[in-house]
Amino acid sequence: MVAADGDEALQIAERLCEAAQVPVRVDGAPIDIALTAGVACQGGGHGDLSSPVDRAAIAVEQARRGRRIAALFDETAWGD
Question: Are 66 and 37 in contact (CB under 8 A)?
């Protein structure tokens, strides 16, 4: 799936996280699933964070701190 921009990628990530929240059953027992997603766009020199994987990992932490299911990497909030 390809997103046109970061905002669209964030919306897709949020929908995927919401879809995964439906409990699954294993041997009759319900198992709750909770996902948190971090989104980072390709390119862009963000100092020492040239890898989109590194920026996405930070975005996951930003989402968790904000008690959201997904976040787009925010360089201005990094290091807070």
Answer: no
Contacts of 13 (CB under 8 A, 6+ apart): 37, 39, 69, 70
Query: Alpha-carbon distance 30 to 13, whole Å?
Result: 24
What does each C-alpha distance from 32 to 22, 24, 27, 66 come to in angstroms?
7, 7, 14, 21
Sequence-separated (6 or more) residues with CB below 8 Å from residue 70: 10, 13, 14, 17, 36, 37, 38, 39, 63
pLDDT per residue as tens digits for the range 5-26: 999 999 999 999 999 988 899 9
